[in-house]
Structure prediction request, 466 residues.
Amino acid sequence: DLVKFTKSPIPASLLQLDSNELNKLALEGFISIMKYMGDYSIAKDQSEIDSVYTILMNCHNYEVLRDETYCQIMKQTTNNKSSRPDSCQRGWILFSIMAAYFSCSEVLEPYLFKYLEAAAHDKRRAYHGTAMVCLQNLRKTLRYGGRKNMPSIEEIAAITAGRNSKRQMYRLPGGTERVINTQSTSIVQDVIEEICGLIDVRSEEEIGEYSLYCIVEGDTFTTPLAREEYILDVTTALQKNQQVYYLIFCRSVWHYPLRLDNALYIEIVFNQVAPDYLEGLLLVMPGEQISQDCVYDIAKVAALLHRAADFDHMPTMKETKYLLPKPALSVRDIKPPQWVNLVQSSWKEVEHFKPFQAKVEVLEVLEKWPLFGSSFFAVRRDADPAERSESILALNRNGVHFLDVITHETLIHYSYFEVISTRKVKSEEGHLFLDMKCGKNLMLQRVKRIQTDQAHEISRLIRQYI
Prediction:
């Protein structure tokens, strides 16, 4: 009888608990289970949402109550002889909710799995479908540790009403938005894989080149979310603090070649590359001059950018200014009217292109530039007093590059084979540093220290490339 359905509240916890307080909470939890299943009357000022909230809150605050709650739900779904026809069904729904949020102990795990597998794989049982959902939820919860934050009342109300997913907005580079049904159990990796599916990126290795960033309004810097992090843990915490946030999908590592046959892929990569190009970060200018080949590329890309914006008239002088990389406007040997003439000459080659074709052409031109596919960071490095300490750090598939701030020539380069380790250090004044241990062998190792507020993101990207 201890492990079978009962119509009455239990007099003591099913498992041995350490204190009277925990025992009291266990009994309160059992009554909440009975209320949700319809086997115990609910006060007029309460609802089934309150019952679920009580169960989840107790399990969130007291880990030891998780096994107890699982045992209680197993009891109430075993040989259920309730007068309420939907009692057992609601018990299994509660089971699936519990399994979506909390793991169990290693001691209970084999028994819990055996119970769920027996119910899920026996199609003669009325609730085998819900039992299968419980099984899937529990496997995922045990793999990723379960939810870290208490779900919001809105989320509990939704899952109590049988709505297992939330319409969550995700942004793509360029401002395009995608709504993805996000479940209580959805982790960052799930969302990355779903968006990658839309752009025909299927292999595990290539999917690994994409990240999901959370940008919070007012924060200067951002880092990608950990792949095993629960999406609704992130959003619930931000909403609780009334923070405005955006979840943005983008490419963070650039080993794989471009895919030029998928419109959404082109849109994402183009809108990610274009801002860095116009800022001038991709442009290398030895001696603060632009090579003739590069001048031709810049003029062509300017014309293509104009067409990519769906303009069908020749770029004017005023428009040309915004189609060129910023440093190009300040070079000594090419004046603004010359740039206009060059861009307008290139326009004749591209004016018949469709905007999509123009974006593809931009990427094909820039892909040949040495800094294409780089992530850029402003850093200060410990340098010879005679040298300028400010640098731009560029990370790309060819390694770690310290660039001159003005010309973007590579001052120091390390391949990823030479990067032995990275370590984040904080000074007493609160400055953040990154120590990079580099060297081709044990005898030629040295530590390169850089000061940067983005030490965490640089370290993470280096690890991702390695």
Summary: The chain has a mean pLDDT of 92.
